[in-house]
Amino acid sequence: MTKLIVLFAGIAAIGVAGLNRDAEDGRMAKPVDARPLGVGRLVPDFKLSDIAGRSRMLSDYRGKTVVLALTSTTCPITTKYGLTLSKLEAEYKTKGVQFVYVNPSETDDKRDMVDTVRKLKLSGPYVDDPTVPAYFEAKTTAEVFVIDGSRTLRYRGAIDDQYALGAALDKPRNRFLVDALESVLAGREVEVSATYAPGCLLPQKSVAKTGAGDTYHSRISRIIQDNCLECHRTGAVGPFSLETYKDVKGRADMIKYVVDKGIMPPWFAADAEEHSPWKNDRSLSKSDKVALLKWLDGEMPEGDPKDAPTKKHFYTDWKIGKPDAVFEIPRPIKVKSDGIMPYQEVVIPTNLSEDKWVQRLEVQPTARQVVHHVLIFVQKPGALRDPLEEVSGFFAAYVPGSNSLIYPDGFAKFLPAGSSLRFQIHYTPNGAATEDQTRLGLVFAKGKPKHEMHTAGIVNFGLVIPPHADNHEQKGSVNVPFDAKVTALMPHMHVRGKACRYDLVHPDGKREKLLDVPRYDFNWQLAYNYREPKDAPKGSKIEFIAWYDNSDKNPHNPDPSKTVRWGLQTYDEMHLGYVEYYVPGLEPGKPLTKIRPTLFNRRGGG
Fold first, then answer.
1. How are beta strands 411-415 and 451-452 bridged, if at all?
2. Positive or negative torsion for Cα 478, 527, 484, 589
3. In what order do the strands lie in the sheet with 528-536?
4. How distant is the alpha carbon of residue 162 from its chain centre?
5. Integer Cα distance of 179 and 193 in angstroms
6. Where are the beta strands (DSSP E) in 249-355?
7. pLDDT digit string (tens) for 154-206?
8. What pLDDT is stored for residue 497 in this prediction?
9. Where are the alpha helices (DSSP H) in 314-406?
10. Which residues have C-beta within 8 Å of that of residue 443, sequence separation ≥ 6?
11. How many Å apart are CA 267 and CA 519, to the nearest integer?
């Protein structure tokens, strides 16, 4: 009876939390936007005093990966996860990972804490301190934090998705903490770096701010590393490197300009009201943008090199891992030094003797500086080329800023036996003649997936943009003949493209905005990948609305006096909105009435 009273007293004092009011059911662990949650930042140094009377600083673990797990002896979620944490600690102790347990509850009995450590055979320090969660602005007792050897926060969120308030699975579907640890230990990016963590609510306390402000080594280098170095490093596509303090300081004015204007990092979706729905969101969080601009406007202090982040690993070979198959253009294509080149097309037989399911794919040009984009299409054996192939969907793509697709387990694209791959490559000469030999790498799924991935295109072949029009609207749409899950959107226009939007029109006429791009940039053909798929019910319609600037105010416009129509070259235009989706419940490989463009749009207009 006493134990029961303690349990309810603990819940009353701490509060019971769902995941977040944004979560559909308020309970289950799901990935969330990591950018406003401090992931990637230096974790402040603080004291850890355990129940055995020993004290240490977090910095004492420098060089080791640390799992800091919030817990409680009375919260029903954390008590269920006790054995899971114990097993993980034993497994990862041999790999050099240090577990630290923090009980922030001011109502839990210390005797129960000692008993918990003994029963679970926990070897890491068990800290009884209600102030620690404030350093992370933690919300619940069940959240865990993965901190790398340079004290950079790499993951925060749930251990896995097995337990939630009032719900339990026989085993977890997603092991978020394990995946994060494996990535950090291997020097890879953590794919899911933040999730909701269902648990008992914590009182919200603030930590007093100390110190003279952000320095290059404490924060700015982490912002640059996470948002700029993918391109701005030695050997990458960026025109200059930002790998050192000297590099960043020397280009401070230019960095300040492009960040303030929203030109860099390249991301063009409208700002989300709270958490971004896009798992590949490249934009700076509001706090990171403020911190970077403030530092650039000031004295730009370098700070203590001991605060520097672990050097980020960038892939020099294949991001998708070692491919099972590589298909390369047989002979290099010569790219001239200037002018315009027509699209280059090369068909490569796969010579596959059996059907394959592709879970990972990556397109690699060898002369990225002149490759504007690559689209790769599958041609089935013996089939004539589909005249709507380019607008009905592609198999793989390369665009500036994105060259790979990595699907989770259970999702894959179909590549039939005996098929061929048609490479369509758009080169943009940049002043120096060169050669390119683009290749495609594929990693096959271990078996037949649960869901087959498809791509559809929304197109208006009949677009007509009048001379000097500065905000000309065009529309296209597709009807959805089945219940679909939309996973990604990728708009495509040329140099007169100004803005675009995707809308989902439900069967009852209700309109839902899927993607708003208020400032389209032809130089960055970005895909926008949902963190959680969007439902497109049977009988709904997806519209792609685009606006074009054919005026002399558009600095990219080759001829404002021209009436512009559909065409392949950049001086022509396109109205093409790609949609990636899958159909739940449909057996992969079964014939599908594919989403096709509504061809009445050949007449132009909406």
1. parallel
2. positive
3. 454-459, 576-582, 484-492, 528-536
4. 23
5. 10
6. 325-328, 333-335, 344-349
7. 999 999 999 988 889 999 999 999 999 999 999 989 999 999 999 999 987 76
8. 97
9. 389-392
10. 320, 321, 322, 323, 324, 358, 359, 360, 361
11. 9
